[in-house]
Amino acid sequence: MQHDEMIGKVQALSRLPGRGPAERATQAVLTTLAERLPSGLADHMAAQLPPELAAPVRQVTASAADGPSSASAERFDLAAFTGRIAGRAGTDEDAAVREAAAVLEVLDAALAPELMENVAGALPADIRELLPAGRAAEDTD
Q1: What is the value of pTM for the model shown?
Q2: Are 81 and 127 in contact (CB under 8 A)?
Q3: C-alpha angle with apex 26: 33 to 38, nearest 5 degrees?
Q4: pLDDT, tens digit, for every residue of 79-115?
Q5: What architecture is domain 3-63+75-131?
Q6: What is the residue extent of each domain of the chain?
Q7: Most buried residue, 15, 41, 96, 136, by CB count within 10 Å?
Q8: Is 42 helix (H, G, I), strand (E, B) or coil?
Q9: Burial 29-48 (b: 16+ CB within 10 A, else e)
Q10: CA atoms within 13 A on the CB side of 75
């Protein structure tokens, strides 16, 4: 899936007024998701994204490589996840939940199914609830 198509779908699904807010929301979600995933998994995700959307993910994984444990993900729950997204996108937490769900739905369609299964499996149950219904219901434990 190409960049413009992904941003257009995020805009439509999250009912954002324009492409600018959809771009900000998408980058905020991808950055925060990359912080939550093990860096190797985030790198695999970035490899399947258009370059403009892979960049924020790669920034996170590059800075994680300088940290004490480059393979480990940050541990945080849904409240922290949406709080970070809201801060980055310049919105409130209710909008961040809606935007995160939209981006995750677009990712589910854009990434290889096996990769998306691994992403879902790396997320705690409360964040996994934002995934499309079929994916969120899968038992990944």
Answers
A1: 0.92
A2: yes
A3: 15
A4: 999 999 999 999 999 999 999 999 999 999 999 999 9
A5: Orthogonal Bundle (1.10)
A6: 3-63+75-131
A7: 96
A8: helix
A9: bbbbbbbbbbbebbbbbbee
A10: 2
